[in-house]
Specification:
It is built from 9 helices and 7 strands, in the order E-H-E-H-E-H-E-H-E-H-E-H-H-E-H-H. The chain is of the alpha/beta class and about 325 residues long. The chain starts with 7 loop residues before the first strand and ends in a 25-residue tail after the last helix. The structure holds nicotinamide-adenine-dinucleotide.
Length: about 325
């Protein structure tokens, strides 16, 4: 997509954290924003920033797990702004932390519904509309660095975010040759309200029966016991508006992979090397390879060739 000026962007989880940062960056670059979120209070807090600056933006109350409601929301946005060109599947939640064998069925259902089915609902609702109007369009979905390698204590989150990668990389192949570009976003630590919003949007029927652990008891001098004292990371984690600028750059360049944090490169390299190293060092079966290749992109997918521009070290975001 050459520019986002005048394009209509539909951003889920757009009222907080990373989604709000992406929405602000897209607005600064001239897009019209549909800020879709499951929390009306967050939408109400987010919208004034756009209105004060004269950026076109509407709020859309939407639970991404509901595909029928998604279609109604898309109709509403089309009525307000016309064709939708940019979909950012960003709504996501965190739950079920700790060893994976302790995650409950309800933790799984809540996480899978929002983090995977929510993304698929966005794709199924909006990609056919993009293909039908034929104007340059783009879909971005938010995975995580937890969607690239295992993070102890976060297996449920990792499982969902790996799924987002698989979905988007396949979608990229399926949309090759169309006017719809595809990106998968891998944020590292970014200032947001993930823990709080996740607790707010978790439906009553998916709450675990056991109560959450009680808060730590302060000692007599009022201090909280050591393991619970969280350092303030707000100055260290990425600013969502900076991250949003990186996403706009990825959309404009048509990057399949949008990375934001260079700190994860060595870990990812280690995993990729380990996978390749584990492949049996045995003679190649030409006949089998030919048959498998005829199944489509099972052993080779051209989407991995050259679509992602190397990061520009001298690039400065407009924040
Ligand atoms: N913050 C980070 O460090 C980080 C790192 C990697 C990936 N992520 C991912 O980034 C995305 C955004 O998270 P964030 O950190 O900005 O958190 P956030 O809680 O600040 O924002 C997420 C928004 O999604 C909304 N939401 C949740 N469930 C929804 C649903 N069913 N339908 C519609 N909206 C819903 C919430 O109301 C909230 O406004 C998530 O997918 C998250 O997994 C975050």
């Amino acid at each position: 997509m050459e520019n986002v000026q005048g394009k209509v962007a539909f951003v889920t989880g757009g009222a907080s954290g990373i989604g709000l940062g992406i929405s602000k960056a897209l607005a600064k670059h001239g897009a019209k924003l549909a800020i879709a979120d499951a929390r009306q209070s967050a939408i109400d807090e987010a919208l004034p920033w756009f209105k004060e600056r004269g950026y076109p933006a509407v709020g859309v109350l939407l639970n991404v797990t509901d595909r029928d409601a998604y279609a109604v929301a898309a109709d509403e946005v089309e009525k307000a702004f016309g064709n939708i060109h940019i979909l950012v599947n960003n709504a996501g939640v965190a739950a079920g932390g700790g060893p994976i064998w302790e995650a409950t069925v309800k933790d799984w259902e809540f996480m899978v519904q929002v983090n995977i089915i929510g993304v698929s609902n966005g794709v199924s609702t909006l990609v056919p509309r993009m293909l039908a109007h034929g104007e340059p369009s783009h879909v971005v979905s938010t995975s995580s660095t937890g969607g690239l390698f295992g993070v102890n204590g976060s297996a449920l989150y990792c499982a969902c975010k790996f799924a987002v990668s698989g979905l988007m990389e396949t979608l990229a192949g399926e949309l090759e040759g169309t006017n719809v570009g595809v990106s998968v976003l891998y944020p590292g630590p970014t200032n947001s309200n993930l823990g709080f919003s996740s607790s707010q949007v978790r439906p009553a029927e998916l709450q675990n029966a056991s109560a959450p652990p009680p808060p730590p008891t302060p000692s007599s001098d009022g201090t909280v016991p050591a393991p619970y004292v969280m350092r303030d990371y707000t100055k260290i984690f990425m600013n969502p508006e900076e991250l949003g600028e990186r996403v706009v750059r990825g959309i404009l360049r048509g990057d399949l992979f949008i990375h934001t944090h260079p700190e994860f490169k060595a870990g990812l390299q280690l995993r990729s090397d380990a996978i390749v190293r584990a492949i049996p060092d045995e003679p190649y079966n030409e006949e089998r390879a030919k048959v498998v290749a005829s199944f489509g992109t099972l052993i080779y997918n051209p989407v991995y060739e050259g679509v992602t521009t190397p990061g520009l070290p001298d690039w400065e975001p407009i924040v």
